[in-house]
Amino acid sequence: DTGVSQNPRHKITKRGQNVTFRCDPISEHNRLYWYRQTLGQGPEFLTYFQNEAQLEKSRLLSDRFSAERPKGSFSTLEIQRTEQGDSAMYLCASSPRGAGSSYNSPLHFGNGTRLTVT
Amino acid sequence: AQKITQTQPGMFVQEKEAVTLDCTYDTSDPSYGLFWYKQPSSGEMIFLIYQGSYDQQNATEGRYSLNFQKARKSANLVISASQLGDSAMYFCAMRGSGGTASKLTFGTGTRLQVTL
């Protein structure tokens, strides 16, 4: 178990280009989350998967954003036609499905992908 | 909706002293969990401590303890014997038991600087 892995660590792209980030969760965790964090702010929820099902999407996730988790293992987050406002740290997290409620389980975060749109 | 408020943008503490980072929350869920995370300048979010809404005792993890006052809806983090390596951003977060049980909601964070 090496923790949550995110690639790449850094991405610089020009406005209008598409970018894709990958997240590999902790292997036994069936829940996977994407968050966005801008400078000086706390992480903001984007979307959440349980296995391969995308169960919740934030209103922050515009139609230029799409996330997939095709086999219930790794996930990808794609941003199409990037804008300068997309510059942020994109964090992935995972958590196990416990026997009881989920509210007592912490999320385990990766190191994030820092996106800079020029 | 859930809301986390951290009113201290920045705090300073001398090495070896204790410091309290404030967190208040608002939720209509009957059960919920409160979490604190540390984010060093390298960017990773490190889970520190958890407090359940029905836990009778305040949570402790090594030098970290959580001062949980349910009636006041506060969950302050206390770091004892501060070390230089404690300098980082600290985020308070919560998960509810209702429709929002799936995600963590974060506050805006407090930047802690430990000085010699």
Oligomer: heterodimer
**Alpha carbon gyration radius of chain A:** 14 Å
| Overall form of chain A | globular
Structural class of chain A: mainly beta
Poorly predicted ranges of chain A (pLDDT <50, ≥5 residues)? none
Please give the number of β-strands of chain B: 12
> Pairing-aware structural class of the strands and helices of chain B?
mainly beta
Helix percentage of chain A: under 10%
Shape of chain B: globular
Can you write the helix and strand succession of chain B as a string? EEEEEEEEEEEE
State the helix count of chain A. 0
- Identify the biggest protein-protein contact and residues per side: A-B, 28 and 29 residues
How does the major sheet of chain A shape up? 7 strands, mixed
Strand content of chain A: over 45%
Tell how many strands the DSSP assignment of chain A holds: 11
Q: CA-to-CA gap between the ends of chain A?
A: 36 Å
Determine the mean pLDDT of chain B: 94
Radius of gyration of chain B: 14 Å
Task: Classify the beta-strand content of chain B into a percent band.
Answer: over 45%
Q: What ranges of chain B have pLDDT less than 50 throughout 5 or more consecutive residues?
A: none
What does this structure look like?
The complex is a heterodimer of chains A (118) and B (116). By secondary structure, chain A is mainly beta. Chain A is built from no helices and eleven strands. Chain A has strands at residues 5-7, 10-13, 19-24, 31-37, 44-50, 53-57, 65-68, 75-79, 88-95, 108-109, 113-117. In chain A, strands 2, 4, 5, 6, 9, 10 and 11 form a seven-stranded mixed beta sheet that branches. In chain A, strands 1-3-8-7 form a four-stranded antiparallel beta sheet, with no helix packed on it. Chain B has strands at 3-5, 10-14, 19-21, 24-26, 32-39, 46-52, 60-61, 64-69, 74-79, 88-96, 105-106, 110-115. With 116 residues, chain B is an all-beta fold. In chain B, the strands form three sheets. In chain B, strands 2, 5, 6, 10, 11 and 12 form a six-stranded mixed beta sheet that branches. Chain B has a four-stranded antiparallel beta sheet with strand order 3-9-8-7, with no helix packed on it. The mean pLDDT of chain B is 94. In chain B, strand 8 (64-69) and strand 9 (74-79) form a beta hairpin. The termini of chain B are far apart. The relative contact order of chain B is 0.34. Chain B has no helices and twelve strands. Classes of the chains: A mainly beta (118), B mainly beta (116). At the A-B interface, strand 5, strand 9 and strand 10 of A face strand 5, strand 6, strand 10 and strand 11 of B.
